[in-house]
Amino acid sequence: MSFASPAQARPPAQDNFYAMTKPVGSLCNLACSYCFYLEKAHLYGGTGTFRMPKDVLQVYVRDYIAAQPGPEVHFAWQGGEPTLLGVGFFREVISLQEKFSQGKTIHNALQTNGVLIDVEWARFLAEHRFLVGLSIDGPRGIHDAYRVGKGGEPTFDRVMAGLEVLKAHKVEFNTLTTVHRKNARQPLEVYRFLKKIGSGYLQFIPIVERAAPVGGALPGLWLAPPPDHPGPDEAEKMATEWSVRPADYGEFLCRIFDEWVTKDVGTVFVQQFDAALANWAGEVPGVCVFAKNCGRALAVEHNGDVYSCDHYVYPKYRLGNLLNSPLASLVDSPVQRAFGQAKSASLPRYCRECPVEFACHGECPKHRFLKTPDGEPGLNYLCAGYRRFFGHIDSAMRTMTVLLNSRQPPAAIMGTPRADWVPSRVRR
To answer: Of 425, 392, 407, 48, which Cα lies nearest the Cα of 253?
Structure first.
């Protein structure tokens, strides 16, 4: 196979886009109970190394850089567990990025469970300024509830050992925390623990999964999101035992927000709070689930298959393969644009008339499997939680927006008496 030189690279995509790269597919050294991606092994025969071949890696790095319309390129390496590939794989990544950079600034982020992080890894990550996302669900008992090894053994101590190595080598890191049935009612314990271990940027990802139907073409795998939309009473039965309850998730965010807004604005960054402020201020949020439309965050599997979204790695949503189609053409394809625009086009009337629709935008379509009170399909499973949360923060968000518009930092809200906050317009 021949490869184009940087000068012969394909034209860029029409707009900025992002890809979650799965260089080791769904292969992982842990067996977290709630992991939605482990099942994707069935798409590729269920066995094998799932290691991205050199020819696929070279095409991907070259095309991903060339397809970005701006001067900065952000690579995101996920899994599965990408550290299973070893440091040598990522040294090759750096070499290819330097070869095909075209003068652009390259950034790398690595999402990891942390258990394989050692001195060699930490030195490499520090040298090449990787941003490390560490998956950790809270203190020991909370973390070990679902984040376990292949034999069901706890992993907390191994994760913390990896984190200490990262910190010793001054590797920049943030934390990704899933919110599930067992930690949703301990918000402040989780939040304070994450601050204590030094995380300054927190992501709280709600676990919402449904059991796969019996008798599917591929064992245990949803071939496509189910078409049925149960009512609220049936939804609880349909969700897996580890899925977060909507009301619990809303309260989880509210409790953390109340502590954050009085103590930590400007020093601790919570993804949901940042996205909310962007929407209140009329800016584009930095996370697709709270944007009006999506479709600019794709998934790239180990063999070069490109899917519409990390949450839609199903045969129906396979756009093509990097070895056969330019990445930019897949990103801008009519099929992918329709996928992204469907996020707003498919919102039921109940959502369109909601006073916090501008902040929620129906959240992720993957979670829209309920019926609205008037029987229309497409309501998000987490709707009740989001209505509670966005209504709860309305006054604070309006106040911080006023501060921004007057060229003051949002952190100034911590010195503003609540009596002087902008009144909320959301009726609760």
So the answer is: 392
Going by C-beta distance under 8 Å and a sequence separation of 6 or more, which residues neighbour residue 29? 81, 84, 113, 115, 116, 149, 150
Q: Which helix (H) or strand (E) holds 163?
A: helix 156-168
Fill in the amino acid letter for 228.
Answer: D
Sign, CA dihedral 99-100-105-110, equals negative
Give whole-number Cα distances, 276 to 148, 288, 309, 356, 363, in Å.
Answer: 32, 12, 22, 10, 12
Distance in angstroms (rounded) separating the CA atoms of residues 376 and 241: 26
Instruction: Fill in the DSSP letter of residue 369.
Output: -
3 state SS for 132-157: EEEECCCCHHHHCCCCEECCCCECHH
Per-residue pLDDT of the chain (428 residues; tens, 9 = 90+): 444 444 345 799 999 999 999 999 999 999 999 998 988 888 888 767 799 999 999 999 999 999 999 999 999 999 999 999 999 999 999 999 999 999 999 999 999 999 999 999 999 999 999 999 999 999 999 999 999 999 999 999 999 999 999 999 999 999 999 999 999 999 999 999 999 999 999 999 999 988 765 555 555 555 445 445 444 455 555 788 899 999 999 999 999 999 999 999 999 999 999 999 999 999 999 999 999 999 999 999 999 999 999 999 988 899 999 999 999 999 999 999 999 999 999 999 999 999 999 999 999 999 998 999 999 999 999 999 999 999 999 999 999 999 999 999 999 999 999 999 999 998 65
Q: Which residues are catalytic?
A: 310
Among left, alpha and beta (phi > 0; psi -120 to 50; other), residue 377 is: beta
Residue with tokens 């049925």: 228
- Decide: helix, strand or coil at residue 210: strand
Output the 3-class SS for 65-86. Answer: HHHCCCCEEEEEECCCCHHHHC
- In Å, how far are 38, 46, 151, 211 from 219, measured between CA atoms? 12, 10, 21, 12
- For residue 257, give Cα distances in angstroms to 143, 203, 265, 270, 406: 21, 13, 10, 9, 23
Q: What residues contact residue 75 under an 8 Å CB cut-off, 6+ apart?
A: 19, 21, 61, 64, 93, 97, 106, 107, 108, 109
Single out the residue of 14, 108, 93, 37 nearest to residue 309, CA to CA: 37
CA distance 136 to 119: 20
Residues facing residue 370 across a β-bridge: 379
Q: Which of 76, 73, 96 lies closest to 6 in space, CA to CA?
A: 96
Question: Which residues are within 8 A (CB) of 210 and not within 5 positions of it... i.e. 6 or more apart?
Answer: 222, 226, 238, 239, 240, 243, 369
CA pair distance 58, 60, nearest whole angstrom? 5
